[in-house]
Amino acid sequence: MCTYLTEKIAIEGSGKGAQGWFGLSHATVYVDHPVHAGYAHTVNIDFLNPAIGPSARVAVELTEEDALALVAAIQTALAAAPAGLASRNQ
Amino acid sequence: MSDAITAGSVTITGHGGDQIEAYLARPLDPAPHGSVVVIHHMPGYDAATKEIVRRFAVDGFAALCPNLYSREAPDASPDDASAAVRAAGGVPDERLVGDVDGAARHLKSLEGANGKVGVIGYCSGGRQTFLSACSLRLDAAVDCYGAFVVNDPPPGMPSSMKPLLGLAPDLSCPLLGLFGGDDQYPGPEETAKLAAELDKLGKTHEFHTYEGAGHAFFSVDRPSYRPEAATDGWARILDFYGRHLAA
């Protein structure tokens, strides 16, 4: 769609990018053209730390179906673990 | 006439006097040349865009593509730079116009420049092409499937992005529009509204909509590539610039 419409949230955790592991501060989610996936549009998710620089990024480009399946898988995995086990306040 | 060109990165003065990166390609023969500012698509200042810049040089134009993400991500890969700029809210329209103006001034300063400058942009750059052609004194503009020229940008877009149709009376040069019949952004009804407005205003324009093509049909490295539309589109672009950017 070539828009700047982006869901952006603050997050805490780590990601592994081209330069190795780094701490994450934000995630963005947007539906737009992918760089690599073989579709005109995909659901794109970036895990970022802008304080380190633009290259501190873990990126995925997913189909709509698979993005929704990922959401469900996250919920299933969390439901199978004791509540709060992976919480920020564990 | 020699077909040799030179190409590489340069530094130009963009909006607000900022020094920004740009990719320049130009013919080596001494004949006077028209110039083209290339506005890259939203995925950034990438290899495919640099190939477009070189293509213009091979066809006899000096071409320059400013890296619109130069400030936020000067040394990052194009996709990382694009993601960083997106996360920061995008390129403000005012800054875009300043960067295109800087690129046009740089091209006019080159030896052999004939003083004529065109602009071309793809995807988001299509919208930015129309914005530039309505904001600057240029000699020809090519909008390749730019959305949100007529229709309002959706809620949530950066506040600096205003609807552009109201700028149409200020269009300073002939406009070539190349669109895909299957594209939704812009859809055929949006480009038809733009054509009708330009007709009403007496602004010179040539629009072509390719059936069987959608958005980004010029992108040779993407599944949206449509060889017939792209080949015909390139021929129309070179003919258009040949007519309007000649000495």
Task: Give me a quick take on this structure.
The complex is a heterodimer of chains A (90) and B (247). Chain A has one helix at residues 64-80, and strands at residues 7-17, 20-32, 42-48, 57-62.
How would you describe the overall organization of this protein?
The complex is a heterodimer of chains A (90) and B (247). Chain A is α+β, with helices and mostly antiparallel strands and 90 residues long. Chain A has a domain at 6-62. Helices cover 19% and strands 41% of the residues of chain A. Chain A has one helix spanning 64-80; strands spanning 7-17, 20-32, 42-48, 57-62. In chain A, strand 1 (7-17) and strand 2 form a beta hairpin. Chain A is globular and about 40 Å long. By secondary structure, chain B is an alpha/beta fold. Chain B has one domain: Alpha/Beta hydrolase fold, catalytic domain (Rossmann fold). Chain B is 33% helix and 23% strand. Chain B contains six helices and eight strands; from the N terminus they run βββαβααβαββαβα. Chain B has helices at residues 47-58, 78-87, 93-108, 124-135, 188-201, 227-244; strands at 5-13, 19-27, 33-39, 62-66, 113-122, 140-144, 175-180, 205-210. Chain B has an eight-stranded mixed β-sheet, sandwiched between helices. Chain B is globular, with a radius of gyration of 17 Å. The relative contact order of chain B is 0.14. The A-B interface holds A 1-6, 8, 26, 28, 30, 32-33, 35, 38-40, 46, 48, 50, 53-55, 57, 59 and B 41-43, 72-73, 76-77, 79-84, 86-90, 123-124, 127, 147-148, 153-154, 156-158, 161, 185, 214-216, 222-224.
